[in-house]
Write a structure and sequence with these properties.
Length: 367
């Protein structure tokens, strides 16, 4: 984000927006550890140092000293119920850019060295001005100290961490109860404020778990995140184009192109063999992925129920087959629609036997 122009702040305008190479009063500079092409001052200004640059074509050119423009990111603080800001910079190293917090860099180089990777240690501002990143205005606090400071200033709301809480998996399995949120936090290494945020419905999970007050009995709906953006797409336009744009009603497309979660007339669903209980196939030739939590990323991710878009493969200009790719246990599984339809709704057979073929006697793609 560019430096905001609608905020009346003296430090923002006179220091962070000052790109002159002339030093400010008593300004000191130090090389940034790990990034020898940059220096930082006790004012929080970043200087890109003169150096020779080699471009992708092998050409060389000399980059002169210059003051880098900081980046300001805005976020909404739910406790304070106001917009807050953080001042950052981008530092390049071996062709990659790394985003860094300017207050943390200033504190580390001019006040006291600390573990920069420990994000439980926060840099606070003595005058509570988040643009005032001068070394003399910075202090290092823990999360609890920041919370106490906020409460002392009357800017936060009093939060009750003493209540008994229960821990559940995101799928809804009870794990344990704790006499208070501090006990849960200390046992599992989770910040207690994150647990309370889940209970107060400001977050959905903390430490990849669901949390409730012990005297509350959660329902099935409590384990399904509220949809932020739900798609009303019901038409597989890509498949329609691949099939030569046949004349159809886009508001009521044939089954193979219909992505609506509403069941079609007389539609029946059965589990697809080989992919656990995550996917269903219908007698109309549609495939549905069920609501599921996945662990294929660092944090658990909720995948909402949807109809899977079908793909088309061509034997010839007039002969084709419908299929799709499903992801199960970190592997891609190709589903040939005609084979699985026959297996699930007509007669079971050895799906691994490639000598057995299933012939579609209809030229309609809706079944």
């Amino acid at each position: 984000m560019k430096l905001p122009t609608d905020i009346e702040d003296k430090y923002l305008k006179e220091v962070l927006s000052n790109f002159s190479l002339e030093d400010l009063p008593d300004e000191q500079w130090k090389l940034i550890e790990g990034f020898d092409s940059y220096a930082i001052s006790n004012y929080g200004r970043i200087k890109s140092l003169e150096r020779c640059i080699i471009n992708s074509n092998g050409g060389k050119w000399r980059m002169a000293d210059h003051i880098k423009k900081p980046r300001v990111f805005k976020y909404f603080n739910k406790q304070l119920k106001k917009d807050c800001y953080t001042v950052r910079c981008g530092l390049a190293l071996e062709g990659k850019e790394y985003g860094k917090s300017i207050p943390r860099l200033v504190y580390y180089h001019f006040v006291e060295k600390f573990d920069m990777t420990n994000h439980k240690l926060l840099i606070s501002f003595k005058d509570n001005n988040q643009f005032h990143v001068h070394a003399d205005n910075l202090e290092k606090l823990s999360v609890s100290e920041i919370h106490y400071k906020t409460m002392k200033l009357g800017r936060g709301k009093k939060r009750n961490f003493s209540r008994t809480v229960s821990q559940y998996t995101v799928e809804g399995t009870f794990i344990a109860s704790f006499e208070c949120m501090d006990a849960a936090a200390n046992t599992l290494g989770i910040d207690r404020t994150n647990i309370l945020d889940v209970i107060e419905k400001e977050k959905f999970i903390a430490g990849n778990f669901r949390w409730f007050l012990k005297d509350y009995s959660p329902t099935k709906e409590d384990f399904i995140p509220t949809a932020k953006n739900t798609s009303d797409k019901i038409f597989n336009k890509a498949l329609w184009k691949r099939l030569g744009k046949p004349e159809i009603d886009e508001n009521n497309p044939p089954a193979c192109m219909n992505l609506s979660l509403e069941d079609l007339p007389d539609e029946q669903w059965k589990p697809i063999p080989g992919v656990g209980d995550q996917f269903l196939i219908s007698n109309k030739g549609r495939i549905k992925r069920l609501n599921i939590w996945t662990t294929q990323t660092k944090n658990k991710l909720f995948l909402r129920e949807r109809i899977v878009s079908l793909l088309v493969g061509f034997y010839s200009e007039e002969s084709y087959y419908l299929h799709t790719n499903l992801y199960y246990n970190r592997k891609q599984v190709n589903i040939r629609l005609n084979r699985f339809l026959y297996y699930c709704f007509v007669e079971e057979f050895d799906l691994s036997d490639r000598t057995l073929g299933v012939v579609n006697q209809s030229d309609r793609c809706g079944i």
